[in-house]
Amino acid sequence: MPKIIRNQNNPILTTKDLEPTFDDSRVVGVFNPGACKFGDEYILIARVAASCVQEDGWYKVPFMSFDGEKPVLKTKRWKTAEIDLADPRKFWYGAQLYLSSISHLHLARSKDGLHFTFDPEPFMVAEYPDEAFGIEDIRITQFEKTYYLTYTAVSKDSHGVKLASTTDFINVKRYGMMLPPENKDTCLFPEKINGNYVALHRPSTDHFSPPSIWCCESPDLSHWGNHSCILRPRANNYESNKIGVGPQPIKTENGWLVLYHGADDHSVYTLHLCLLDLADPRKVLKQTQKPIMIPQAPWEKEGFFPNVIFSNGWIKEDDGRVLIYYGAADDSICLAETTIDDLLRFLD
């Protein structure tokens, strides 16, 4: 039987490991990290969600204002009785959807892949109006000495995908909007295929079918086209609401190994695998019939948003081991270990 072993030290990073970046705020989530190796370091770039310190009878939400020369964190507030907080992540007020927190990206470093320390300052924060509600859920893909970063930008115009890069994990070059709203959950393949860069992404298609995984390509990382849907949610207990791709695909002799998440009608998030053809990644060769990970541990079942396992970061070691870093309950970061061989056995 193939195995995925949760680390006994889970969760490995929590809200207690990071002080608030903004005044009058509190850290409510450290989760969903992108992951890679950089020299002799293990790198995690975590999504850090911060909410306002609340006042009696009022509910405040943070956002970035771009009215002046520099972006400034501001807040809006409403009487608590006027809003529906059934979903702790978001709420509607009139015709506008608001997030209860604002996210930025914070980098953590480790020598052993288990014990991480956050850098003193955030790695990336909102800098443009299309990031006014925060930046989230980064994926990291290495091309030679450049690491490309795809991340979700949130604003009143909804979720879009932006592209950036770094060569040293200190300085960041931003390229702007890669895929406009509504889109998210985007990763790059780690090499060109048939002469083009290739990406998997997840546009919102709620009107006719649940959100699905799409493929697109680009000659230059700027112009993306030839979009097509390659994987749709199945009518089962795990994917009925939506699916979305996780970290960068791993190349194997059998095909491109892809980790993705599924969410059911009760917003329980689980992890799954599929295998794509090496020469034509729009062709799905195999797909797991049931999740490879479901919420089980207390910190996966209870937290800011319960019953969530969500991964957008894994690292393949030279010996065939695979380290899966995942967000638990939109609250903390956990680690699970497996091997390429075991992952492929899940697909048999």
CATH class: Mainly Beta
Radius of gyration, in angstroms, nearest whole number:
19 Å
Specify the number of helices. Answer: 2
Biggest β-sheet description: 5 strands, antiparallel
What class do helices, strands and sheet pairing give?
A: mainly beta
Instruction: Give the CA-CA distance, first to last residue.
Output: 11 Å
- Taking pLDDT < 50 over at least 5 consecutive residues as the criterion, the unreliable ranges are none
CATH topology type: Tachylectin-2, Chain A
Share of residues in strands: over 45%
Q: Would you report the number of β strands?
A: 25
| Shape assignment | globular
Order of helices and strands: EEEEEEEEEEEEEEEEEEEEEEHEEEH
How many structural domains can be distinguished in the coordinates?
Answer: 1
Task: Tell me which CATH architecture applies here.
Answer: 5 Propeller
**Overall pLDDT confidence:** 95
- Superfamily at the CATH H level? Glycosyl hydrolase domain, family 43
Helical content band: under 10%
